[in-house]
Amino acid sequence: MRHKEYGFYRVGFSKFTITPNSDDRAYAIIDTNVIYRLVREERINATGDFRARYYKFYSNGRIAEFYDRNVDLKKHGVLEAKKGYMGYYNYNGEDFIVQFYNSNANASELYSQILSIERDSLVLTKRNIELDAQVKSFYAKESIPKKIRITKPDW
Q1: CATH 1.10.3210 holds for 2-150
Q2: Residue boundaries of the structural domains of the chain
Q3: d(CA 120, CA 111)
Q4: pLDDT in tens, 110-136
Q5: How far is CA 43 from CA 49, 116, 118, 122, 128, in A?
Q6: Which among 140, 8, 25 has a CA at the least distance from the CA of 89?
Q7: How far is CA 125 from the centre of its chain?
Q8: For residue range 65-102, what is the model confidence (pLDDT) as tens digits?
Q9: Which helix (H) or strand (E) holds 74?
Q10: For residue 69, what are the contacts with CB-CB under 8 A and spacing of at least 6?
Q11: How many CB atoms are located within 10 Å of the residue 88 CB?
Q12: pTM of the predicted model, to two decimals?
């Protein structure tokens, strides 16, 4: 596990259970030229607070999760992948899976989400079967201004 300059961990690919996407049909579902902003959540038997966050998909099967404190495009003029949590996505023609591996001083966790589209929202669903819990997160697509520099993932 590597700790990077902005405080985010980078782990080896062996920690994930999916391979990075290689199916071009995924790009009919997601857009790698935009950022997705969380607009609402639906929770069933799950607690937690709503925190502004964003997803950026990259064309090589990688995805970054950003929180508000790390994404201020007006102030910084750059979308820095190093300031996001690392993840991968894979589309196999039926299921679109997104995985993140988060680690801190107390614990490490791999979590998977199922991606779907509902109306005009990208929806990521995270389930905990043991607790009969589910969180559905709804994201709106937002353009990234042309003047913003986008860095490549460091994982």
Answers
A1: no
A2: 2-150
A3: 25
A4: 889 999 999 889 999 998 766 788 999
A5: 10, 17, 16, 16, 11
A6: 25
A7: 12
A8: 998 765 666 666 788 898 888 999 999 999 999 999 87
A9: helix 73-76
A10: none
A11: 23
A12: 0.87
